[in-house]
Amino acid sequence: MIIATFIKRLIIAVWLCIVFVCMPASCETESREETLGRKYALEVEKQYKFVDDQAMTDRVQRIGKALADVANTVEVPAKYGSSDVVKFNYEFKIVEDKDANAFSLPGGKIYINSGLLDLVSSDSELAGVLAHEIAHAAHHHVTKLLNEQAKIDKYVAIIAILGILGKAKGSDIRNVMMGASMVRQGKISGYTMQAEQDADQTAISYMVKTQYDPLGMVDFMKKLDKMHDENPTAPLGIYQTHPAPFRRVASIYKALKKENIIVDIRKLRGIAYANPVECTPGSGKYDVMICDKVFYSPTSLDSASSSKKRADELSKAINSLLDSGLKPQDIAIDDATGCLVAKGKVLLRIEQGDLNSASENSRILLTRARRALVRATWADWLMNTCSAYADEDPTEIK
After folding, report:
1. Digit-coded pLDDT (tens) for 271-284
2. How many angstroms separate the most distant Cα atoms in the chain?
3. The pTM is what?
């Protein structure tokens, strides 16, 4: 009796699903999207408290308006959704929530968490987030996703009906439905990934038409990635549904190239790239960092050879070597001279001043430097292998 009742209810539910899916779709007009957005907004605003700090609100409104003005006037080809420009009345609100999150609703309603505002270091980083969310609305991603979901639900419903009409056992029906549900989830995840990639690329196109630096998007993405590495269990917020970092950077790199912005892909990725980092603000003491590892810590030898100058020169030399295709076998320690040699030339010589400020001997310092550089060559090789994706449509990457 229970199974019979379940089957009857399932048939009714499936029938309603098919009738809904097969109804003629109305034109995706501005009023429909804005109506849908207002409906969602009523539910959102029942669940959240909003920040009324005037300075914070003014900042978000100022940056958001500059980007919204572009979205309302410039057509950017869509990789997902629709390129049709519809002039939405974009609204920006700050949600009281510590998670680094942001989201948009159809029709141009954008919500930014206060935790995200605490995390951004510049207006360009914030502009990257806002441009990404504006792109979701401007390219009608939610509408596209709902339509795709309806198509998938139709096929799931058909599978269920075939099982029922074929008088399959209850367990068989459950297995079929479970399989169909897994397929549905995989498809929807794929569509979500495409929407995120389109939003990244579209955001770049918006930002280059404003005063904000599009590389702010990459800076903020790296910040989220590092935050997650340090605390893997922390909520990822807007990072949760985004593509893997190397794919996002490849997508952003491609968008930058289209805008004739040429950047160093290694620097953009921030993986196999050496850079000087001040140990403590104002200390004047610098480390040379590669892949978040200390390569070497040069001290100030005299007024002409400060720690910063030596770190700058060493970083430049390392990046030049990586650009030339440095391999692990090209790197060796010369114990006789106390040097690190790369491609037959001295890259690093241990100075007495460095030894005086270090707690390790020269061999340990050279070994650490060699390991960091070897690690960078492997990261560089992996990155160059993946960077081929930068010239491909990221939605086709498997």
Report:
1. 678 889 898 888 88
2. 91
3. 0.61
